[in-house]
Amino acid sequence: MTAGDSNRAESPAPASKPASTPTVVRAYAVCEAITRQEARNFSYGIRLLPAAKRRALSAVYAMARRIDDIGDGDLPDEDKLRGLATVRAQVRQIGAYERLAHGRADDPVLTALADAAGRFPIPVAAFDELVDGCEADVRGHQYKTFDDLVGYARSVAGSVGRLSLGVFDPPDQARAAPLADTLGVALQLTNILRDLREDRQRGRIYLPEEDLERFGCSLEVDAGGALAGSPGFADLVRFEAERAETWYARGLGLLPLLDRRSRACTAAMAGIYHRLLGRIRTDPDATRHTRLSLPGREKAAVAARAILRGTA
After folding, report:
1. pTM, rounded to two decimals
2. Which residues contact 128 (CB under 8 A, 6 or more apart)?
3. Please, are residues 94 and 113 in contact by the beta-carbon 8 Å criterion?
4. How far is CA 68 from CA 105, 247, 257, in A?
């Protein structure tokens, strides 16, 4: 048994919290449906949680998905920014939705999130950071240095790591929070490498300008929709992948601090992305032409190993 893992019982909901009303039950069902439909990698881990945590994490995911969908949607940039500002204001008023949860509520995602925040120490203010990152996307922000990119990754993924940690509710939150943030950065760096071509087609470049200059890459799109070849492209991708590996090495230190099922959930999600990073490192040139992914059977195998070993 690893240090910090006492195999303690799952954290119960606070005794003072009233039972879920039909409104709240319906709201959670909507969030779980969104998660099953939209979270292809995330869902392999979330299904390993006990019901209360699974519902709460689905609410967190559904809100994060809403924010991402606004930032990545087809609306004009001005409308996207207005939509993000609206969500920011709604989340800041989450207490009002918790009160509505016991009567009539028109927004199931906000209702479920409010109920979850009343049951677990979810740092809902972290959604502000996610909105900040999506606003940067809409404005086409680019990153000069790797430290600049890490700041963005903390906003859009480290924040989700800390929100998830609120659901897991480990006994040592202060020690676990920076590790959850670090693991989120590792996952986001993997996403950036996986999506190089698609992001460039949308006019977005996330890799640091100093690294593009160092390896002589412009990430231009050719007539066929692929990233144009350049002598330094493969070396650039491997270089960034090695950086991501260092963030995984630190971030996975979170696992021993979690209870068994929260650890399995995190290990499954992180393991899928870590395995994907390995595929990118093996064949970096493939990212010029396609969006790499793991087949379902391989994702299932990673999740199964997480259950058996509690690690990724």
Report:
1. 0.88
2. 88, 91, 92
3. yes
4. 23, 23, 29
Tell me the pLDDT tens digit for each residue of 147-163.
999 999 999 999 999 99
Q: Which of 16, 10, 104, 94 is nearest to 60 (CA)?
A: 94
By the 8 A CB rule, do 203 and 300 touch?
no
Q: State how far the Cα of 268 lies from the Cα of 182, in Å rounded to an integer.
A: 16
Domains of the chain (ranges; CATH) run 19-120 (no CATH), 142-312 (1.10.600.10)
> For 9-44, what is each residue's pLDDT tens digit?
444 444 456 667 888 999 999 999 999 888 777 878
Q: What is the largest CA-CA distance in the chain?
A: 63
- DSSP string computed for 281-312: HH-GGGGGTS-----HHHHHHHHHHHHHHS--
Give the whole-angstrom CA distance, residue 164 versus residue 120: 10
Each residue's pLDDT tens digit, 239-296: 999 999 999 999 999 999 999 999 999 999 999 999 999 999 999 999 999 998 888 8
| Residues belonging to the chain | 312
| Distance set, CA 262 to CA 44, 66, 254, 299 (Å) | 12, 24, 11, 18
Q: Which residues contact 55 (CB under 8 A, 6 or more apart)?
A: 28, 31, 32, 112, 116
Question: What are phi and psi for residue 104, nearest 5 degrees?
Answer: -105, 130
Distance of alpha carbon 208 from alpha carbon 146, whole angstroms: 6
Q: Does residue 95 surpass a pLDDT of 60?
A: yes
What are 137's two structure tokens? Answer: 């996307």
* C-alpha–C-alpha distance, residues 219 and 127, integer Å: 31
Q: Is 28 exposed, middle or buried (0-12, 13-18, 19+ CB in 10 A)?
A: buried
Nearest to 141 by CA among 151, 170, 44, 300: 151
C-alpha 82/C-alpha 88 separation (Å) is 10
Question: How many angstroms separate the first and last alpha carbons of the chain?
Answer: 16
